[in-house]
Amino acid sequence: MLGFIQFATIAVSIGIAFFPDKFLSHAVRSWSQIEFVIDTDDAAHWLVDFQTPGDVVPVGCHSHNDYWRTVPLFSALRAGCIGVEADVWLFNEELYVGHTPSSLAATRTLESMYIGPLVRILDYQNRRAESLRRGHAAPVGVYDTAPQQTLVLLIDLKTDGGVTWPVLQKQLAPLRERGYLTYFNGEKIVQGPITVVGTGNTPFDLVIANTTHKDVFFDAPLDKLVGTIKSPSKRVRRRVRPASRRSTDVGQGLSGTPEYIDAGTFNASNSYYASVSFRQAIALTWHMRLDDTKLEMLRNQIRIAHSHGLKVRYRGIPGWPRALRDYVWRILLREGVDILNVDDLAAATRMLRAGSGGHTWDSGLR
Ligand SMILES: *[C@@H]1O[C@H](CO)[C@@H](O)[C@H](O)[C@H]1NC(C)=O
Ligand SMILES: *[C@@H]1O[C@H](CO)[C@@H](O)[C@H](O)[C@H]1NC(C)=O
């Protein structure tokens, strides 16, 4: 119940901020809790925040398990993150957001928590920008300070990829129809305010099925990518899995991939991130440091991902103790990792804004 009220609070207050009359009347019909909502400090807080989003400067942080936050999506936007993550489950033709099946709630859907709010924010941003753009340029994004900055919506498909995929495609329609999605048009990438990246059970064969229009990109397996590079003709065997039995446990970057992955499999036309678990791929030495060997592995992974035109993201960064976490963050930034996968938005954005040696997000190629 508390979760629902919190969510209603956000949705309604955003509605007030962006649609003073029309959306509010809609919201009143939708949420009987509105009297409660309007009286809370929270509503006022978010109302103020989203009338003045102009001062937020985006930084390379990715809001890990974003839906767990008291205020999903908006906390990440307020912090200036350029990526948010939602774990998605298909039940009865609806996509629910949550960590486990038992934590799902009727009101917490991909549409209600992410797609709907993003459509409203971007409609609002673009109506304001219209006079400036004179109807020609590409749509602007969520950040006033960086209108061309895309926001990555990382969707982790938890249920069977082949069955969940078409429902996801359908649900993205409101963003797609408004021209808000980054897509590959058969020749090149056309940047949009939102870049949808599929991970978990997202099936690579379906990601690449449409050769003239792709607007969901793959989260490529960085470790496999590295395996293909040692000799250019090398092909890496993934776990054998007949396509007709696309299992739900194949995991990130492997579902629906061809039996052999080679250096030509993943590139910017079909993938956005190359990611791997830091714990598994790099790990720390016994004295909790990255020695020269580990550092060389890290640099190699970053170099290879960038040579494929992909952005590097490490999952599974140790979160505790904090000094250790900060040490790893600092090294990742220094070495040119494109985005920090974080739970603690405040700590991460503080470090990112502190400069980390003048790093900029596209200068990671070395
Ligand atoms: C590819 O996607 C575009 C846009 O959604 C659609 O119009 C087209 O029919 C699709 N092509 C195929 C072969 O599915
Ligand atoms: C990107 O990958 C696809 C296979 O998924 C391949 O057909 C295409 O040629 C590659 N593009 C480049 C520029 O390497």
TrEMBL record:
It comes from the Eukaryota. InterPro entries: AIM6_PI-PLC-like_dom, HAT_RTT109-like, PLC-like_Pdiesterase_TIM-brl. CDD domains: PI-PLCc_GDPD_SF_unchar3 (cd08577). GO terms for molecular function: phosphoric diester hydrolase activity. One of its GO terms (biological process) is lipid metabolic process. Belongs to the AIM6 family. This is Altered inheritance of mitochondria protein 6. It comes from Penicillium diatomitis.
